[in-house]
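Exercise 7 asks you to align residues with tokens for two separate proteins.
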Amino acid sequence: MNRCKPLVCLTALVCIVNSSASLAEAATKCTPGDERALVLSGGGAKGAFEAGAIFHFVNHRDCDFRDIAGVSVGALNGAYLAEAPLDENSLSNLQQRTQGLVEFWRSINGPDDILHPRFLGKLRFFLFGLDSLNDFTPLQKIIEKGVHPTKIREGNRSLRVGVVSFYDGVYHEVDPKQVTDDGEFRKYVLASASIPVNARLPRIPSVASDDGTRSEIQYADGGVSHTTPLVAYFSPCDFSPKLLFREATRFGPVTPCVTSGLREHDGPIKELFVVVANPYDPASTSLETKKTAISDGREILERTLDVLTTSPYRWDLNFALAANRMLRWRQKAYAWAKSIAPEDKAREVIAVLGEGSSSQEQFPVRSANPGPDGFSLPYEMGIVAPSRVYANTYGFDKANVRLLLYKGCIHADLMVVREFRMDSMRDACRGEFPVTPEQLRDDPDPPL
């Protein structure tokens, strides 16, 4: 029998061990690169759930994000993260900011750190039409201290903040590269977290008119229209009735879409990591059930708002999943056509299933993931959502925050295991965000 020399054997053993370690790491880490986007929903105090999920992605899984979009508390979290410079140390920079984001949430002692109820606010609201119930000066100071638009611009990481104009009801996504005044951009971040009636809506000067004058426009929480800012990842414009009635001359010249406050992305996006702060099941349209009838008028009003806000919340997610399935179907259909048809026939498939002004037809959706054959591709996409409601919108107390951070991490781990086929790192969540057994008694961790 041939025997290897000790040095050769040792070298081979080291190579095998290193190879095994590399494979193990690959099974738990994101692939290097920055063609990845992070999408954050609204949810008030439940933004701590988002922070826990982000920490798992960035600090446990080494996921880097070049593109960040957020609405309401998602805009606050996103604006803080976006200051991490996008350079040769991009991931390390983002990990430091993510650690800082978690520490910020841990530092919150209660609702008073975010808002103060206005004196006799409810009475003045019903009797005199007071514009808001709460004073969000503490939150405004947090934004002034923690959000630095100049650093975001210099860092080159893309950021989108979703707001709704109370002037015309249009949803806009504001980019700090477009709004060069730091104070004005901070107002947009505050507006994105300003729920009408609960908060006073910031007034921001409009674009100058032909005579040079600028009027002030009120902006509100982007969640009024899109609780989760996904629409821009599938089309840079809204759908138009003209697409449905292409032959109807009463609509005049046909255009592919009606532009809104959305714009093209700076570069290709191949993966979408979506974090929402409320439960979501694509197979269900129901809210968390109420065990008893509601007789208190205040509870009825609160439940009404829950039902109203749930519709756009679910629409955003349902639309994104359906749009991605359509893009995946087209990708498979085109690949099949190329495998069985001559080149000229395959070109006809491109014309039918294409996009852009040169195509014979307009495919209903497109993505920010361009393909080599002239049309956009689907994303690798995963949605992180809690299994239940852990806190109300203004439940900013330490116990809630601790539990939300832990649950965000656990559900982020669950998503990457199921959607991105990685190995679980649940123990890392338990080590970083410890909770008591009592907190998990009624809500154990979901099975993998």
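Second protein for Exercise 7:
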Amino acid sequence: MAGLGVKEVTLIGGEAYLRDDWTQIVRAIRASGMQCSITTGGRGMSSARAEAAKAAGLQSVSVSVDGLPSTHDDLRGVRGSFDAAIQAMRNVRAAGIPVAANTQVNRLNLHELEAIFEVLAAEGIHGWQVQLTAAMGRAADEPELLLEPYQMLDLMPRLARLKSRADERRVRLFPGNNVGYFGPHESTLRAHYPSKHTGSCGAGRVTLGIEANGDVKGCPSLPTADYVGGNVRDHSLRDIWERAAPLRFTRERTPRDLWGFCASCYYAEACLAGCSWTTHVLFGRPGNNPFCHHRALELWREGKRERLIKTRPADGEPFDYGRFEIVEETWPAADRDRAELWMETTQERRTS
């Protein structure tokens, strides 16, 4: 990885610390000149493990917190998960490791985001990543967890306000790759980007993922069956990175590969339908991303919105997904007043 020019490695799971050699891996990454962090649910991040991580050279730990106590525990399926996550943060900080947090945004926690941030900021986080819950794994089995595409009109102004609050608290709020897309808040949320807005999918261009068995993908979130380009036990990582088609797909994508709304979008060439993971697990292929703020705004101006309907269940395998269809409809009168408030917030941000 270092020979390819990798700068940072994040160990994810499951829980990376369940491997007996996890601190060896941290030491090897650091000895090779790369930064190393861990993302964890925090269930077993004890003081002893945090101290071992510090001794091995770990530089940051991001703890997943997906709601206030009741919501987080519901999403995790285990009572006490929230308390364990907060305790993990405290253990990590006590060991002298900077701590961050990450949150998957969905229908259960959308209206808790402001309160979640205040809880996390009080724990001394240096960064907070937010991304949309995608229709993979359990979320494919429980689609009622997923945001509807039109809820981007609510989410994006919320995140823009939270970004200002995060700046006040000296917390770096950074949206994941499946959040945004050329709406009026992009320059606020991605001020640290040279372009000040989201680009196209970075899988196989700026990221790669290596699974526990050695399978290599352009991004660790991508479905395994569709995107593995090879295994490091059979081929060198350089050969897989440079030659395997499943890792090259974003390098060769053009607007001609897009479909649906994205094919005719003004930003098609720059965006190329955004996050491939989010769209593939909805439709079985990338190229048409309904979770787009610009798209939701354009449809709003026409009095329309989009919803997702599940048409096929997931098959029960790791990294699985089902199938969904997009339904375009006229905004119901009962929902228009609420949407008007979202739009007023967006307009305020544009003129301030």
